Amino acid sequence: MILPEHEANRMLADAGMPMIAMREVKSAEDARMRAGDLGCPVALKLSSVLYSHKTEVGGVLLNLASEEDVGKAFEKLEKLRDSLDSRASIIMEPMAPTGTEFFIGFQLHPQFGPVMGLGLGGVWLELIQDVTFRLLPARMADFREMCAELKSWSKLQRGYRNLPPLDEGILTNLMEKTAEVALSHPEIVELDLNPVVVRSDGAIIVDARVLIDSSPLFFEAGLCSDDGAAGTLPDRS
Amino acid sequence: MPVSPRMREKLKRALNARRVALVGASREQLSVGIGPLYNLLSRSFQGEVLPVNPNYNEIFGLKCYPTLESINPPPDLAVLLLNRDRALEMAERAGKIGIPAVTIVAGGFREIRSGGKAFDERLLELATHYEMGVIGPNTLGFSSFHKGLHSIFWHLDALPGPVAVLSQSGGVGLTICQGLIDLHCGISHFIGLGNCTVLDFADYLEVLADDPNAGTFLLFIEGVEHGRSLYEALKKTALRKPVVAYKAGKNEGVSRATATHTGNLAGEYRLYRSMFKQAGAFEAQSVFDAAVAAKALSMLKTPRGHRICALTFTAGPCIVAMDKLLDAGWEFPDLSPEAKLKIGSILGEKTAVDIQNPVDLTGPGFIPQIYKSVLETVLQEDFDAYFLVWSFNPLLRDATIEIEYLAKKHPEKILVFVFIAHQIEAAPYLAALHSKGICTYLNPEDGATALNALLFRHNFLKREGLR
């Protein structure tokens, strides 16, 4: 099953992943107050198991510039929730920082077992499909090769247009961390981190989609022994 | 899934069989039963060929057995040249008398949609029960050329050599072998895997990785059920010996789409591609490329770096090759000032040419002595590999003797030679160069592919901490 966005965020944050700050808000008043704490602009989203493509149903309201806007937006999402999925939550996030956007994915592939993907993220992912894969566990050298395999990498690395130059280490460390988290949680069948915003001071995962299986298929399939649960093999040099 | 160690042991015995039963052997020209008989008899197979067919007392002077059971002791391998239903029955009988492995050439298993899968399952069941290796079904079979064990049922006139060809398709496998023959490169094994019902790539790789005759592996893959075990087997093999892979089914329409997001993007071919790279298997882009790469990997040492020097007297072929070489990560560092001076003095003042890397000798270059002196000069320089071009002209003596001489004098150097000539006039030169250990191709793209395969291997070994 797909975890609701706020639960996915919490699960990954607990595992040490750099998730965007996210809070569930219970009422318009609560939302206004939180927005005041957080500082506008903020985003409000419907977090529903039933609608993973929430933008398409109008479940994402961005750039809410004032507390007043936040209150109105909450009411709007509340109505949407009543009509779509009464169990959905309404969550608030700061607006995503700007930076270079990547996609990091993980999948327990039926043929290849644990696989990690890296791609140019955000809206470009499906359009350009500049993606590359490695089987896990992989080495740091593999993660570096994955970066270099992206067609857009050399331009992005130098700093494309108004984006700052990229620090490869920030991205590869996050890939390593993602591999470790995915492999140490055998219930994770699939993980889509998109976008992952990489800036000069670090990376932030703005959106995460986690598909979990209640049966520990991962270990049953014998794809990875306990001692192989770390996502990264030591680099040999 | 990979089979038991015991079954692998039996596969090893079959691939080195001394006594081979040919069930359904025939002297009828239109029967598949004649193929392995002809192939084994026309090769220097030192073992025993044991035809089985109740309709004959002898075939081609060999005693013909009425039943498999009447061969005592049982053979190391039974090639079942029978239709599906009779092959299944005979496989069961082979299992009962403890024959280590059978080849099943018949089709009609899971490759046919209407009910074929049940026959695969039946076969797997009996192979598991008797722990008997099954090559195929739906295959030409296999040949171990160093043993003269040429047991496929089709024509393949290969010389024993270093490349083991493992192909899911017999037809493509033969095409690959034709490429290797064109390149004067010998073949250690030809294995048609067929449906891989029992034995899969991983099993053959595991067994052949230990075989000193198999120096380089060349795989043609349509698709496998157990991608993970293929990956693991490829990587394990590549850590010991070079591996080349060629994959069909690149079109996304062929790949199995999964409903989920990552799955959609992970069109199978992309996964295979990444997997080959990670496993250290050089991925070829065509059947002939696969042969080109396998030849270089089987003949030449792996370079220690990515610095290359090119030598030619005609610039174009180098430019064509450079496109591919630079893409793969080769670099063309400049020559030392001393080398430039020396080359300048060899060419003389009358030759108006910039001396750089690639070294283009222009006119004087097709004088073998000049070509040789310049080659000797650049061989003194610190390059990891050399790309040499000679354009054939029957009016002039060529520099192949000089190249052979210098290659022998500098055995530590890695030379790829492009001899621009058409296949027919080049044939005697190719054979002679090959016998002297000069890795030669007829066009610059092939030369570049060969070098790229070598660089790929260097990068893989480096990543794995083996250099």
Description:
- The complex is a heterodimer of chains A (237) and B (467).
- By secondary structure, chain A is an alpha+beta fold.
- Chain A has helices at 5-14, 28-38, 67-84, 124-128, 140-149, 153-158, 168-184, 217-220; strands at residues 23-24, 42-47, 60-64, 89-94, 100-109, 113-120, 131-135, 138-139, 188-199, 202-205, 208-212, 232-233.
- Chain A folds into two domains: 21-94, ATP-grasp fold, A domain (Dna Ligase, domain 1), CATH 3.30.1490.20; 100-233, D-amino Acid Aminotransferase, Chain A, domain 1, CATH 3.30.470.
- In chain A, α2 (28-38) crosses α3.
- Chain A is globular, with a radius of gyration of 19 Å.
- Chain A starts with a helix and ends with a strand.
- Chain B has helices at residues 5-15, 35-42, 84-96, 116-130, 170-182, 201-209, 227-238, 261-265, 268-279, 287-299, 315-328, 337-347, 368-380, 400-409, 423-435, 444-463; strands spanning 19-23, 48-52, 58-59, 62-63, 77-80, 101-104, 133-135, 142-144, 149-150, 160-167, 187-192, 216-221, 243-247, 281-283, 308-312, 359-360, 385-391, 415-420, 439-441.
- In chain B, α7 (227-238) links the parallel β12 (216-221) and β13 (243-247).
- Chain B is 41% helix and 17% strand.
- Chain B is of the alpha/beta class and 467 residues long.
- Chain B contains 16 helices and 19 strands.
- The chains are: A alpha+beta (237), B alpha/beta (467).
- Chains A and B meet through β5, β6, β7, β8 and α5 of A and α7, α8 and α9 of B.
Specify the number of helices of chain A.
8
- How many domains comprise the coordinates of chain B? 2
Indicate how many domains the architecture of chain A comprises. 2
CATH superfamily of the largest domain in chain B: Succinyl-CoA synthetase domains
Structural class estimated from helices and strands of chain A = alpha+beta
Strand portion of chain A: 25-35%
Task: Write down the oligomeric state.
Answer: heterodimer
- Biggest chain pair contact, residues each? A-B, 32 and 24 residues
Distance between the termini of chain B: 32 Å
Order of helices and strands of chain A: HEHEEHEEEHEEHHHEEEHE
In helices, the fraction of residues of chain B equals: 40-55%
Shape descriptor of chain A: globular
CATH topology of the largest domain in chain B, anyone?
Rossmann fold
Q: What value does the Rg of chain A take, in angstroms? A: 19 Å
